[in-house]
Amino acid sequence: LLFLWSITVSIFGIGGLLGSSGSRYLTVKYGKKKCLLCNNLLMIVAASIMGCSKIAQSFEMILIGRFMCGISAGLCAPLHHQYLGEISPRKLRGFANSTSSFFWSLGKAVGQISGQRELLGSQSLWPMLMASCGLPALVQLVSLPFFPESPPYLLMSKGDQEGCKKAIRQLWGEGHHQAEIDDIMKEKATMKNTKILSVLELMKEQAFRWQLYMIVILTATVQLCGINAV
């Protein structure tokens, strides 16, 4: 029983590792908007599986749902930041990206509060708590089709300059946006001369060794600071 509980908790992280590892390939091939839409479907399916686990009397459904949630979260973390930053005007880009951290923290807080026994953490309501992760995904699935694809993706990956201009006008309104298009073109030219490293190549690269040490230490010590207990 202890082993099953441990697997149930940790399988979310395993799914997250797989999801984040495949995010770059998927975004380059299909675009950020399509990936986010499919990711929302994955989360809704995962929430439905976990929500029905009690009726089906199947702990395996919780394992499968947690794993799928992990994949969805792993995909969403980089995708959300990239898409939000790329569709925001330059003067609001920093603010827009900072809202991601705020809502990540707010979501964790709401989850911790909702999980109290007096609320949704009771013996009869916990399936609703596990299925609640599908609600934000459903909201985004319904609203995201009204937004265009990322302008940098359209221009840099697809070479669709007219589509890029149309997306910019839809996002930022009518006006002269040639400066933003020129910035994207400069970034595209820079990317041609930049080698994209794999995870293994990054770990072997001497120039990034100290940055990797710092990230690993910071990430590890966050787990030891007692934030979950708080």
TrEMBL record:
Bilayer-spanning residue ranges: 6-26, 38-56
Molecular function in Gene Ontology: D-glucose transmembrane transporter activity
Designated gene of the protein: Slc2a5_1
Keyword Transmembrane part of the UniProt annotation: yes
Coiled-coil regions, chain positions: none
Matching Gene3D superfamilies: MFS general substrate transporter like domains
Protein name, per record: GTR5 protein
Organism: Thalassarche chlororhynchos
Biological process terms in GO annotation: D-glucose import; dehydroascorbic acid transport
SUPFAM superfamilies, alphabetized: MFS general substrate transporter
